[in-house]
Structures are given as C-alpha cells and as structure tokens.
C-alpha cells in the first residue's frame, strides 16, 4: 500500500495574503477540509481549516479579509518515505486529524486524513475478503460462476447495528426485534419523525441479513419529480421519451435485484404510482417504461415514513392494500425527547466523529452546555442535535463547548424550563443516572433550582 495512493495530492495551495474569498472558492472546488499554506517556493507555512473558515465567517470578516490571522502554524508534517505504523501514529495525534505530506525536497505534496487511512485499510480488507470468498466458492462448487451482477449503480449498506448509538431501553428493544427478523426477507416499515435515524435502521437491517453482500438501493419518494418517479423506479427503454438515454436505463428495482430496496418517505409517493409499485411487489416483476419485456426481480422492501399512513388512507391519498404489503413488520423509532439518556451520549459521539472533519480539537461539553442540550425538546431530533454540535464545535475550535457557542433557542428554552408533573419522578431519576448520582450536575441538567430539586426528591422518596 503506497502513500501516494492514500493521500489527497495537492497541486495548488494558498498563501498568507490570500483572502476569505480565495479560501472559500478553494474549499468548494477541492472539497478539502484543510488547505496547506505555503510560500512561493512551496515550503509549508501552516494550514487553514474548515473551522478557520467558519470562525472568520462568524466573526463578520469580509470576503476581502486576509486569512493570515486564522492560519494554524502547529502542523503535523510527514515525509513520503514514512512507514505505515508511523503514519497512523502521526495522523492519530494530529490536532486537526490531518497530516501534510512533503515530497523528497521538503515541498507540499498532499494531505492525509484519518478517514483516508481507515478507508484504505477497509478497501484492502474488503479486497482480501472478496478474494477469499471467491476461492471458497470455487472450492465448494456451490455456484457455476462467481461473477458479480453487471448492472451498474447499485451500492451496499453503510451502517450496521454498532452505528446506532443508544442506551435507551425502548430503542434496545426495537434493535433486538429488528435483529431477529433481519435474517429473512420480510418487508419492514420504519415509522418515526424526521431526523430520528430511520435510514440507519434500514442500512443495519440489510447489513445483518442474508442479502448483505447484495445491493442496497435507496430511493427518496419525496425528492424526485412525480413525472420522473416511474422511470426512476422501473427504468426505461431507449427512446421511451424525449431526453431518454440511447441505451435505456435500469431502474431502482432492477438495480436492487437480489438485495434490498429502501423506499424513503413512502407516504409522499403519488397515488397512481402506488398501484404499479403494488403490482411489482406482488408479482416480483415489472416492465420498463416504453418496454414490453417482463423483468423478474427478487427484492426485499424496507420503507420509511413520518406521515400518518392510516390518515392518508382515509383521505384517499394512500392505498390500503399497499400498506398491508409494506406493513408486515412495523416499528416506530422514538423521538429524541423521549430518549433523554441518549442526548449527551450522542452529542459526545458526534464530537469525537467530527473533530477530523471540522479540523477542531473539541474535548467535550461544559456542564452548563450539557444542561441546555438535556433540557431541550429537539423537534428536529438527532439531525438537529448533530447540526447544533457542528455549529458549537466550529465556534469553539478547541477545549469544551460552552453555552456561548450554542444557539439562542436552547437558552430561551432553558429559561422557560419546567418538569411535567406526570414525568417528574422519571426525569429526576434519569438525570441522576446520567450524572452518576451527582446532584449538582443533575440540577443543572434539569434546568431547575437546587431547592426545587431537593424538594422534588423528598416528594418522591428518592435518596
């Protein structure tokens, strides 16, 4: 595994007197999170990170402002003859999670991130595993051919059960239930508010199924114009309509053959397409748009929605017979405000994951900031939490995220904070569990006064 095959080569770089506009255009063009800063000879002077960019923007800097005051000069550098063990150690201990690669003349050559190292080893591991599987298949003569499906455009699942971070008992029950049924091919309907992580569950179901080495194909029923949905689902033949590709195009059903088709936002599917989807599911076959050849498919259906399907059925906007087909196994992912013990767990997990991406070295949450997060109702669920953590990290840069780095709506919510009478005892107990029995921290988490906290503890006999 050669270093030049892992690193991101850098052909151009910024200089000290370049501006915020220059840095923004460079990042948009290259998609890099870190930009090397060099002199006219290519000698490294420092780096400018995405976090540096955010801090300039949030400070009100104009596009013509020079980036010089925001350049990070404490940079991890690496020569291109480094060993792999040394390389991993360098990247792991870099404050921004990235190291600059210098060529044999000491000039800027490229960038290396933790993700690129991890991805390289994962690709190597997958390649070796694939070769072993093919050898095993040949030995056992289980198949006449080990060639992959020639259809392009399919993908595989990105997440497993380990990627679903929780210590909530209800969530654990849902995971255990889905693990039991994931092995087979039963249709699964995932319900829950937007941002609760339904897509992660769909990926994890596929990854733990017998179809895990087959395609996992996603289609968002709300994101594609209605006039294009049928072609997106079932594909089309050459000349089927104006603008059609000359060779035709395989649809999502065809791409998912042997694997899983994930129908996201199924409640937004147009009614006329629902009947065609139902026929394809029941008959395990379909025709391409403009075609006359019946295509047979073997596909597991996982669907997700935040819409009240039963209500849509009464309003004649969703087919009842389609719901029966999709709803063989159904679970509802609870919103984040019902999973209080997961809020800080997820927040700290995001901090660990995002330091590399944002070029920050954030260590965690200050107690007051943690209290605001815990007390907030999270209408946008996990997606909103992640966005707020990203914002807080960009503003903080290093150290702990404090209240000043959190948006005003969290602070305003904390001022109006009261514990619901019906949930008082449960919330008190959960706060004590979350803080390992530290009453001062629990008081701050709940956003109530110390005297009120002790008064309620006495009321419910909590020692």
UniProtKB/TrEMBL annotation:
Which lineage do the record's taxonomy fields give for this organism? Bacteria, Bacillati, Bacillota, Bacilli, Bacillales
One protein family per Pfam: Sigma54_activat
Gene Ontology biological process terms in this record? regulation of DNA-templated transcription
Show where the Sigma-54 factor interaction domain sits: 164-394
Where do the CBS domain residues begin and end? 7-65, 67-131
What's the protein called, per UniProt?
Answer: Sigma-54-dependent Fis family transcriptional regulator
Any one GO MF term held by the record is: ATP binding
What domain of life?
Bacteria
Name its species. Answer: Pueribacillus theae
Keywords, sorted A to Z: ATP-binding, CBS domain, DNA-binding, Nucleotide-binding, Transcription, Transcription regulation
């Amino acid at each position: 595994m050669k270093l030049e095959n892992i690193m991101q080569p850098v052909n151009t770089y910024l200089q000290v007197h370049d501006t915020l506009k220059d840095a923004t255009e460079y990042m948009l063009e290259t998609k890099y999170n870190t930009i090397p800063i060099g002199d006219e000879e290519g000698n490294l002077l420092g780096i400018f990170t995405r976090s540096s960019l955010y801090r300039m923007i949030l400070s009100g800097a104009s596009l013509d402002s020079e980036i010089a005051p925001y350049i990070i000069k404490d940079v991890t550098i690496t020569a291109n003859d480094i060993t792999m063990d040394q390389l991993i150690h360098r990247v792991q201990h870099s404050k921004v999670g990235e190291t600059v690669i210098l060529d044999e003349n000491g000039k800027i050559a490229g960038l290396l991130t933790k993700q690129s190292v991890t991805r390289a080893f994962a690709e190597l591991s997958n390649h070796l595993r694939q070769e072993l599987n093919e050898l095993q298949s040949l030995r056992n003569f289980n198949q006449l051919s080990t060639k992959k499906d020639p259809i392009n455009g399919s993908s595989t699942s990105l997440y497993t059960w380990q990627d679903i971070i929780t210590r909530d008992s209800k969530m654990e029950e849902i995971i255990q239930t889905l693990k039991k049924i994931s092995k087979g091919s039963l249709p699964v309907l995932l319900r829950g508010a937007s941002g609760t992580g339904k897509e992660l569950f769909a990926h994890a179901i596929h990854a733990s199924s017998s179809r895990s080495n087959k395609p996992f194909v996603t289609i968002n029923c709300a994101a594609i114009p209605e006039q294009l949905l049928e072609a997106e689902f079932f594909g089309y033949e050459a000349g089927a309509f104006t603008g059609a590709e000359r060779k035709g195009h395989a649809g999502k059903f065809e791409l998912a053959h042997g694997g899983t088709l994930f129908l996201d936002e199924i409640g937004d599917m147009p009614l006329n397409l629902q009947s065609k989807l139902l026929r394809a599911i029941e008959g395990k076959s379909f025709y391409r748009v403009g075609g006359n050849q019946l295509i047979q498919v073997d596909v597991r259906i996982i669907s997700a929605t935040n819409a009240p399907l039963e209500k849509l059925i009464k309003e004649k906007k969703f087919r009842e017979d389609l719901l029966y087909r999709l709803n063989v196994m159904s679970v509802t992912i609870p919103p984040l405000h019902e999973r209080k013990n997961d809020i800080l767990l997820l927040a700290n997990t995001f901090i660990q994951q995002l330091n590399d991406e944002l070029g920050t070295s954030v260590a965690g949450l200050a107690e007051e900031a943690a209290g605001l997060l815990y007390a907030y109702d999270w209408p946008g669920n996990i997606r909103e939490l992640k966005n707020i953590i990203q914002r807080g990290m960009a503003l903080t840069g290093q150290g702990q995220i404090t209240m000043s780095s959190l948006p005003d709506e969290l602070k305003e919510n904390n001022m109006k904070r009261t514990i619901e009478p019906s949930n008082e005892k449960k919330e008190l107990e959960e706060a004590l569990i979350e803080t390992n029995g530290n009453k001062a921290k629990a008081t701050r988490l709940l956003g109530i006064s110390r005297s009120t906290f002790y008064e309620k503890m006495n009321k419910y006999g909590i020692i």
